[in-house]
Automatic annotation (TrEMBL):
The keyword Transcription regulation applies. The keyword Lipoprotein does not apply. One of its GO terms (molecular function) is DNA binding. It comes from the Archaea. CDD domains: RHH_NikR_HicB-like (cd22231). Belongs to the transcriptional regulatory CopG/NikR family. This is CopG family ribbon-helix-helix protein. Residues 1-41 form the Ribbon-helix-helix protein CopG domain. InterPro entries: Acetolactate_synth/TF_NikR_C (IPR027271), ACT-like_dom_sf (IPR045865), Arc_rbn_hlx_hlx (IPR013321), CopG (IPR002145), CopG/NikR_regulator (IPR050192), Ribbon_hlx_hlx (IPR010985), TF_NikR_Ni-bd_C (IPR014864). Residues 53-124 form the Transcription factor NikR nickel binding C-terminal domain.
């Protein structure tokens, strides 16, 4: 199936440099692999059940979203144990360490992803022993 995408030029250039450096055959192949990784990451987030321990890392443009992020963090204080925060100009990197019902952690991740001023949200779950 053929499709088209709108991608900022700088993102496309960085993507092309990456897949070419890895020796992948074509941009199409690289896009398929990226899509598969996205699906796997989303599926993992959806499949976690019961209590979980997770680190949620995200970056954001400070001045555009800080008040709303504080509200979200207060709304999820039942699962947020601690946070780490780092500034780099107007952009911030934050890691939230969570423990509790996986459904609540999932809700937190989805709320963070809803903000336009949040660049990326990545989740790492502690593997059960």
């Amino acid at each position: 199936m053929r499709t088209s995408l709108s991608v900022p030029q700088d993102v496309l250039e960085a993507f092309d440099e990456t897949w070419e450096a890895e020796g992948i055959d074509s941009r199409s192949r690289a896009v398929r692999e990226a899509m598969q990784e996205y699906i796997e990451r989303h599926t993992r987030l959806e499949e976690i059940e019961g209590d979980a321990v997770a680190a949620v890392a995200f970056d954001y443009e400070h001045t555009l979203v800080i008040e709303e992020l504080h509200t979200v963090q207060h709304d999820f204080e039942d699962v947020i144990g601690t946070t780490q925060h780092m500034h780099r100009g107007e952009w911030c990197l934050e890691t939230i360490f969570c423990s509790g019902p996986s459904g609540r952690i999932r809700e937190l991740v989805y709320q963070l992803r809803d903000f336009d001023a949040v660049g990326r949200v990545n989740v790492m779950f502690l593997r059960p022993v």
